[in-house]
Amino acid sequence: KQEVTQIPAALSVPEGENLVLNCSFTDSAIYNLQWFRQDPGKGLTSLLLIQSSQREQTSGRLNASLDKSSGRSTLYIAASQPGDSATYLCAVRNYNTNAGKSTFGDGTTLTVKP
Amino acid sequence: KAGVTQTPRYLIKTRGQQVTLSCSPISGHRSVSWYQQTPGQGLQFLFEYFSETQRNKGNFPGRFSGRQFSNSRSEMNVSTLELGDSALYLCASSRQGPYEQYFGPGTRLTVT
Known about the structure:
- The complex is a heterodimer of chains A (about 110) and B (about 110).
- With about 110 residues, chain A is an all-beta fold.
- Chain A is about 0% helix and about 60% strand.
- Chain A contains no helices and eleven strands.
- Chain A has strands at about 5, 10-15, 20-25, 30-40, 45-50, 55-60, 60-65, 70-75, 85-95, 100-105, 110-114.
- The radius of gyration of chain A is 14 Å and the shape is globular.
- In chain A, about 35% of the residues are buried.
- Helix content of chain B is about 0%, strand content about 55%.
- Chain B is globular.
- In chain B, strand 5 (about 40-50) and strand 6 form a beta hairpin.
- In chain B, strands 2, 4, 5, 6, 9, 10 and 11 form a seven-stranded mixed sheet that branches. Chain B has a four-stranded antiparallel sheet with strand order 1-3-8-7, with no helix packed on it.
- Chains A and B meet through strand 4, strand 5, strand 9 and strand 10 of A and strand 5, strand 9 and strand 10 of B.
């Protein structure tokens, strides 16, 4: 059974700082890993998708890496801004004959202080 | 391109009632997944539909059911509502292959 852990649960940083969010998973037989952000009471917004065969993906100030062998992914946010304040979730999609389902971590709540 | 839409956005129901939630995926997406989000349990997978067939099911009681129509729109139904069913219900659609999930805004269900 896939288990996904995100550490830390909460993070507070001053504006402009670079930061790293962590995601660990127990079953390396994954199809893909996706990072999302969620604002309070809202749905999830997709940030980056990394396929099983990829090592990293970049979008603007965001960079996500994937190391299947160690069961880890990181989300790097450069030059953080107050608008980045949100909960960040990672989701791992396992591969089986029916292309699996996604297992989510509990998220890291990020606060960027002006 | 229109995003994933969910209706209704908010619902208040009484214990014992039943409820139906609707999800319209992004045009061209044939996979629809449903999730329940609560403060205590986080995001939990309910079920996934592809081309009108349920492909995966999470660990929820039989009171939770769903279906998908030929136009890929999906509904989920919860019968005999319990207080613990109060949650944000999210649906996500994706295209086969990359399976990048796009979420709707959710339906906030409150059971009193």
